[in-house]
Amino acid sequence: MKEIIDIAVIGGGPAGLAAALEARKNAPDKSVLIIERDKELGGILQQCIHNGFGLHFFGEELTGPEYAGRFIAQLEGTGIEVMTDTMVLELSNDRRILAVSAKHGLVEIEAGAVILAMGCRERTRGALNIPGTRPAGVYTAGCAQRLVNMEGFMPGRRVVILGSGDIGLIMARRMTWEGAKVEVVAEIMPYSSGLNRNIVQCLVDNGIPLKFNHTVTNILGRERVEGVTIAEVDPATRQPIPGTEITYECDTLLLSVGLIPENELTQAAGIELDRVTSGAVVDENRQTSIPGVFACGNVLHVHDLVDNVSAEAMLAGRAAATYVSGQAQAAEYRSVSGRNGVRYTVPQRVSKSAEGKQDIYFRVGSAYRPATLLVKCGDETILTRKKQIMTPGEMEKISIDAAKITGDITLEIEEAKAQ
Amino acid sequence: MKTMEMTCIRCPMGCRLTVAQDGDSFTVTGNTCRRGEEYGIQEMRCPMRTVTSSVRVEGGRRPVCSVKTAENVKKADIPAVLEAIRALKATAPITIGDVLCPNVAGTGVDLVATAND
């Protein structure tokens, strides 16, 4: 099967949905197609049954399926085409997509513009080199989340969680509420990468201890996990300190140890990637190094709030609509980058023709409280912003007036001087 | 006078609050908005939570359907709400917003579906 589509969106999660809707709105005479590998739209939101989504975007707290449901309902009557159960195998640098599905077989799609919205996946045990045996009962937190919330299946009864990422925290509460005993959450860093509200409502509320500067040093059991040993680490080297080991009897270890943007398609297409975000390098319209190919959501950089994903996806959708309408111009760019504590920025460049307020999203490398964010254009500081607290777990945003961007931009942290 | 330290969770800011109670009067410090003050007083007086979970479904695409309490319930009532949810069995078709259990566990709050099944 061969198809010619104006705007093809790869991924039908929150990013893909918002991007497709916004593209269609801005180019009503252009065809828009969403390609989704799962059986239904909504992506990871469908298994995130907890609430807290949509406070910024909808002004109310929704659960994940409800948040997804709002966007899915908006598709009706728009003429946006949807292919579910369809896996994209390849994207070429001239925007040809090769996909496969049981229903359609091999599908070749020629797209005027492509929006990458493939999301991210979890780091697994293999990425951590945890010693010990290889029993059943070691799951990523997101895998356990899908089993409990969508398949109706409890993966274990006594649980240790490694990593205090949001999914791990959410699953600590979820497993507790389903009758499991969560012994401890071990975090190798001296801070959590999860949101405060999750630490409070998932751990503090349920009396689950969170141990910073701790990691798993052994997994016990042959057929099934029988125990997990954790030890304190030296904060400087993050190496386990001998003699601090504690073994917890348990049948399950959940891993919440980071998310990786899923960029195999992007990389194979020859799109320039950012080594820090593991996502594409993009401009203020979320256009990648290949004109007409845009990226948004967790495939671009891992977000902590879906509201930000939707907002970012709308930028990409609007820009894709402009691109297929033939109004896009070849751009010259100013670079945007982080240093002195600012790990990365998105976008990584802003076109010289950009107008109005430019929102730059960034993450810091460690916790600062308080500190000042400096925005520099060359040697000149064009903007300063005092922050009471900045932590690696919460994405920050700063708006810069495009008129002030007369050269390359750097964001950096100036720590408050000790009194 | 009683004081309590807590992290505000009304928004991703996560302000560190100190709530002081003197009889019926509450003083909240460390907040950056009015919602923070409200949260601090509420947490001191009577903490409230939304409960999200899933119920068994018959005849649906999936074996379970996600649910939530339509409004916050008292934190102290959570175990009773969870027990009621565990005992519940729903029948497909289910639409987002359907009341699957009115006045769940006597809280005065309805349990509603958050997914279609």
Relevant terms:
heterodimer, A: 419 residues, alpha/beta, FAD/NAD(P)-binding domain, Immunoglobulin-like, 3 domains, 7-stranded mixed sheet, 5-stranded parallel sheet, globular, B: 117 residues, alpha+beta, CPE0013-like fold, 2 domains, 5-stranded mixed sheet, 3-stranded antiparallel sheet, 2 helices, 19% helix, elongated
Rg of Cα set of chain A: 22 Å
Total discrete domains of chain A: 3
What is the CATH class of the largest domain in chain B? Alpha Beta
Oligomer designation: heterodimer
Q: Report how far the terminal alpha carbons of chain A are from each other.
A: 70 Å
- As a whole number of angstroms, the C-alpha radius of gyration of chain B is 18 Å
Overall CATH architecture of the largest domain in chain A? 3-Layer(bba) Sandwich
Q: What is the number of beta strands of chain A?
A: 27
- Specify the overall morphology of chain B: elongated
Strand residues, percent of chain A: 25-35%
Q: What CATH architecture of the largest domain in chain B do you see?
A: Roll
Class computed from helices, strands and strand pairing of chain A? alpha/beta
End-to-end separation of chain B in angstroms reads: 51 Å
Percent strand of chain B equals 35-45%
Question: Helix share of residues of chain B?
Answer: 10-25%
How can the largest sheet of chain B be summarized? 5 strands, mixed
Q: Are there runs of chain A of 5+ residues with pLDDT below 50, and where?
A: none
